[in-house]
Amino acid sequence: MYAEKPDELRDFISDFCGIPKEAILEKSGLETDLNIYGDDAVELLIAYGKKFNVNVSQFKAAEYFSAEGGLNLLSRLFKISNVKPLQVSHLVKGIIAGKLDESVINRGFSRNVAKTQTYDPLNHNTRLYCFSLPFDNCMHPR
Predict the structure, then answer these.
(1) Model pTM greater than 0.70?
(2) What is the CA radius of gyration of the chain?
């Protein structure tokens, strides 16, 4: 499904959060790079689940996003984080798997997915044979 709609995830994040599409990369951290946290992050994930038919019911948002306001504002200013990183690439994995949870975030792509050519909309190229490597280690033809 993701390969059929190459810019849809980037467009979705851009439209939902008001972030320029050019700023959204596969390695972008939702909280650290795109400043999506707290209730905004939860709302984004719920809308993401509905739009891309991804089950987010087992996703533990509190482990990946800081709360809004208070001391968390100082933590963000000084780039101090006590939450796990969640990247755009993890959302891509969720679309492919049909769910977003620890098991999806922490694993590489399955061999069934990796044996097909897929279009990578975030880098505008074709991805070839990942062989179960994590998303960021897949081969990117130049």
Answers:
(1) no
(2) 15
